[in-house]
Design goal:
With about 400 residues, this protein is of the alpha/beta class. About 40% of the residues lie in helices and about 15% in strands. The strands form 4 sheets. The chain has a 7-stranded mixed beta sheet with strand order 2-10-9-8-7-3-4, sandwiched between helices.
Length: about 400
């Protein structure tokens, strides 16, 4: 069957963090990374059946849950997982925070490829560690790793962890196997553990392939920890479910202890049944979603570059988060974000949320019906035109 991603779902008044946070009702939110589409019907039906049961006590995570994850990653991504490697928790951000708590000590450095997901910085800071930024190289609308700089930073004895965003948010890179191996080899040489946040792993566009870091070989898998969740691909962040995958027994015990210390060791029944339904029955829905997202990306790229050729929409290989180079406007990212909100009631993310390397860029979420995207782009274009008059 064909799924209707053009349907407008009114999210205002639903307790949506994205839609109900703005003071002005006519604000169009294109910031926080969730989608404006209904999730896969199979997920909705599974949740409906669970609601009809009517009792929502403490949840036992069943073997069916683990089987669904193992089969999904084995079938789609060639990643062989074992049941005993799993630790479930309420989300990838709590997972990353607990991993830092478990595997680093206050004062240690945690390496990042910036610009990168803003919550990494707070997770590092909240555990008494400090972020060590290796700025990505930006050329012709694409990011690459400065491996010389990365190795210099990794060789610092204070650096204990590297948090990898794969695919990369906000730069849109889907890292190749060769790039991942080079990063992994550098980390291995210097005793740095790789923490792979792979929450965007399903959101990959034609011509690219997500490579799980742990799939590169036993030596990479055993020097890493992987965090995954269906929440981005199936728009189920509110169900609060994620998995930490750790092959090393001693490291897994430390992380499990930290998960319990942070009190994020329990999950709710809806997260469990939603994950099972998504992974067992949601693949065709996901395939059609990816087609729609890619078309949205191309529409956005062509719209902006036709009207404002001095702006560059970074080549996106995955995710639904456009990263736009606005440096030609001569404005700071904060100024752009604030001015768009004030003048057009368009809520986007300024680039410096993602580190100093994001200055002059903005991030726009295009995971919405085409008509919503068109409205947002019209507001963006009107704002630029008014600024340039």
């Amino acid at each position: 069957m064909r799924y209707d991603f053009d349907e407008i779902v009114d999210r205002r008044g639903s307790g949506s963090y994205k839609w109900d946070s703005a003071a002005e009702r006519d604000t169009l939110p294109m910031w926080v990374a969730d989608m404006d589409f209904r999730t896969a019907p199979a997920v909705v039906e599974a949740l409906r059946r669970r609601v009809e049961h009517g009792v929502f006590g403490y949840t036992l995570v069943s073997e069916e849950y683990y089987t669904a994850v193992i089969n999904w990653f084995g079938r789609r991504h060639g990643l062989e997982l074992k049941r005993e490697w799993f630790i479930y928790t309420s989300g990838v951000v709590p997972a990353v925070s607990a991993i830092i708590k478990a595997l680093a000590s206050p004062g240690d450095g945690v390496l990042l490829l910036t610009p990168v997901y803003n919550c990494f910085f707070s997770s590092i800071r909240n555990n008494g560690c400090h972020a060590v930024e290796s700025a990505l190289l930006y050329n012709d609308g694409k990011y690459t790793v400065d491996f010389d700089d990365f190795e210099r930073k990794a060789s610092d004895k204070a650096v204990k962890l590297f948090v990898l965003c794969n695919p990369h948010n906000p730069g849109g890179r889907v890292w190749s196997a060769d790039e991942l191996r080079r990063l992994g080899d550098i980390c291995s040489r210097h005793g740095v553990i790789v923490v792979a946040d792979e929450i965007h792993c399903e959101l990959v566009f034609p011509g690219y392939r997500y490579v799980p870091f742990a799939s590169l070989g036993p030596e990479y898998r055993d020097n890493s920890v992987t965090c995954v969740s269906p929440s981005k691909a199936f728009n189920t962040a509110g169900l609060q479910i994620a998995n930490i995958i750790v092959s090393d027994t001693a490291r897994r015990a430390l992380i499990d202890r930290a998960i319990n210390d942070n009190e994020v060791c329990d999950v709710n029944p809806f997260g469990v049944v939603g994950l099972i339904a998504a992974y067992n029955e949601g693949e065709e829905w996901l395939s059609q979603l990816l087609e729609y997202l890619y078309d949205n990306y191309m529409y956005m790229k062509e719209y902006i570059e036709a009207r404002f050729p001095k702006l560059t929409v970074t080549r996106l290989e995955g995710t639904y988060l456009a990263w736009i180079d606005c440096r030609a406007l001569g404005l700071t990212s904060v100024c752009i974000e604030d001015s768009l909100m004030e003048q057009e009631h368009l809520w986007i993310n300024g680039g410096t949320h993602y580190g100093a390397a994001g200055e002059g860029f903005v991030r726009i979420n295009f995971a919405c019906p085409r008509s919503t995207l068109a409205s947002g782009l019209d507001r963006f274009a009107r704002w630029i035109s008014n600024r340039c008059q």
